[in-house]
Structures are given as structure tokens and as C-alpha cells.
Amino acid sequence: MAGSRSDKTLPFFVRAAAALAEETDADAVLLLPDSNASWDKLLDHVDLPKLMVVSSNEGVLESATEAGITTVPLTINLDEAPVTERLAHALLESVADEVLQPGANVVALYSGFDAEQIDSISNIRLTEHLGRLTARDLQRLETQVPLETLKIVVDLAVEIGREGREGKLIGTLFVVGDHRKVMQQSHGASFELVKGYTRKERTLFDPRVREGIKEIAQLDGAFVVSADGTIEGTCRIIDTAPVEITLTTGLGARHWAAAAITKNTSAIAVAVSESGGTVRIFLNGEVVLRVEPLRRAMKWRDFDNEETTASAKQVEKPAGGAI
Length: 323
Known about the structure:
alpha/beta, 10 helices, elongated, 33% helix
């Protein structure tokens, strides 16, 4: 990385990554740089498997691409996020872009302690971090809601689940897509907080809007989000028709509402659990993904067996009530 201490240290770590990749039969080396590097010199006399540069910095991505290196753009700037979350998001983006295959073995180089230089190396097996999540799974969700919109909502939900508000964990619900039907099958718990704002002023792709949503998330009710990422309603109580759904014992009214509204519409629901910050994604009345955001690497995984055991109840339950 030009002009930084990494100009001297990075080549040593790249050589170490090459040795580790050979020893572990890795499929790729993933590099999370903070600035540009002399890519041609860096790769001289180094035998690497597929090298991938993952960054939210357009300049870094452009220079790496010009050097013939595979690049994966991060859709959200995570420079201030914990390194475990940055790594997990980088892996998720790589699988979503089909640059990596599920189950791949990856050597990762990143700034674990000093933001100004690459100082850490890890060997990561994606089966441990992404479960059975595949690019096909993400594409299946994209048939209902564009993948970029889904990612921005899930990332926001993970932040809410991890950070809470004022030192306390909070729960909330996002219902994304098919917003006209969702609005018809819900009612306001209080006055509408986005009324009078333009669509540009209500888009979740604006960081200021996301920060505002974190504050509002403390209030009762769901956020209704259109497929293009625009907030259409806040503090909405779901009162859709009763449906037959199966959920794990212990999940509350928020999760029942998420399951019911996705059963009766083509929307996707993203529910944040107040008890532990777990984020669950609902599609067609079922949990299809679960994200554990608290104090550990973010793990994306399919709805696993523990939630389909005999403890699950199958009942016909109205979706109304406070969420």
C-alpha cells in the first residue's frame, strides 16, 4: 500500500499466504486492503491460487482490476466495523457474486490490529461461516426483492441487533417488497413518521436514513420497505389474515407477524429478536436464513434442524397484535 508501512510488510504476508494456501490446499487468497498497493511487484515470484481484493474503495478496486486481479466490491463501507464482521461480509459478497463457491477454503489477509497495515492472516473454511448458504439461495430471494435491497436491509437489521439502543437490545421488523399489499394488511400504531418526505429522503441507501431508522426502531411496529429500498411506512401493526404456519417454540408475536405477512404476500420479512439480537429472514411463511450478529463473526446459515424439531408447533394463529 503506497506510502504506508504495508509497502514493506505486505509482501511478507503475501508470501506467507502463498505457503499457507499450498499447505491447506486453499481455493483462494482474499485480501482486504485499506489503500492501493504495487500489485505487479507484489505478485512477482509468488505462486498464489485465485487472488481476490475485497474493498469499498473504488480506487483500490480499479487499480487491482487493471492489474488483472479479481475484485469484489463491498456494498457498504465497513471500515469502522469489527474485523470479524468485515471478513464475514467480504465472504458473503464473494459467494453472492459467485466469485467463491460454497465450501471453499480461503486464506485471508487483513488489518486485525493496526488499521495502517496488513498484520493478520487466517485460514477460513466457508462451510463454518456460511453454513449451507449458496449463491442460488441468494438468487432465490432476489426473485422477490432485488439482492442489493435485501442486503442493505439485512445489514441494517444486523447493526440494530448488535448495537441495540441506549445500552439495551431492541427488536424490530422490516417487511420488504410487495409494499402495497403489506400496507393494506397493516395499520399504523401511531402517526406516520415518514409522511411528507420525498422518496429520495426515505431511501435506505442513504446512510443518514439508516441512522434515523435505528432510532425509530425502538418504537412498536414494523417498517414497510419497497423493493427499491424506500421506506413506505413506519410503526405498522401487521393484521393480515390468519394462516397456518410452523415456528419454533419461544418465538414471539413479531416472528408470527413476519411469517404470516410473508405467507399472505410476496414480501420478505427481516425480524430482529429483542432477546438476543438474532436476525431471521422470512419467505413464504418460513425462516430461510438466520444471522447471529452479536460478539462473533456474522454467520449466515440456513434454517437449521434445531428449529424443525418436535419442539415446533403447527397451529393456526392470527397475526394481529403488537409486534
